[in-house]
Amino acid sequence: MGRVHDYSNNKDEIGLLGYNEGERTIFLDSETGKAEFGKQGKGRIIINPINNIAKIYSGNFYNEATGQEQNEGMLINLTNP
């Protein structure tokens, strides 16, 4: 449990973090409830409760920087199946 500064989006992130060879592989965000498993990219699995909708998606499905879906990868919507 701790705080880390993410220089890619210039903000502090607070939660449970796990690193392997200097790359973050686990992040449980204590502020939003978001969870990320795996290295950044296509193989990452993300569980994200955004806009009151619970979604599980692959790392290449959603572009975090733009906030847009990319129509790649896989999405499972747990709220509105």
Descriptive notes:
The protein has about 80 residues and is an all-beta fold. It has one domain. It is built from no helices and 9 strands. The chain has strands at about 1-5, 10-20, 25-30, 35, 45-50, 55-60, 60-65, 70, 75. The protein has a 7-stranded antiparallel sheet with strand order 1-2-3-4-5-6-9, with no helix packed on it. Strands 7-8 form a two-stranded antiparallel sheet. Strand 5 (about 45-50) and strand 6 form a beta hairpin. The chain is globular and about 35 Å long.
Strand content: over 45%
Number of helices: 0
The average pLDDT is 82
Indicate the structural class: mainly beta
Q: What is the number of strand segments? A: 9
Spans of at least 5 consecutive residues whose pLDDT stays below 50 are none
Placed side by side, the strands forming the largest sheet appear as 1-2-3-4-5-6-9
Record the SSE blueprint.
Blueprint lengths: L1 E5 L4 E10 L2 E7 L5 E3 L7 E6 L2 E6 L3 E2 L4 E2 L5 E3 L4
Antiparallel strand pairs: 1-2, 2-3, 3-4, 4-5, 5-6, 6-9, 7-8
Short description:
With 81 residues, the chain is an all-beta fold. It is built from no helices and 9 strands. Strands 1-2-3-4-5-6-9 form a 7-stranded antiparallel β-sheet, with no helix packed on it. It has a two-stranded antiparallel ribbon with strand order 7-8.
Index terms:
seven-stranded antiparallel β-sheet, mainly beta, single chain, 81 residues, two-stranded antiparallel sheet, 54% strand, globular
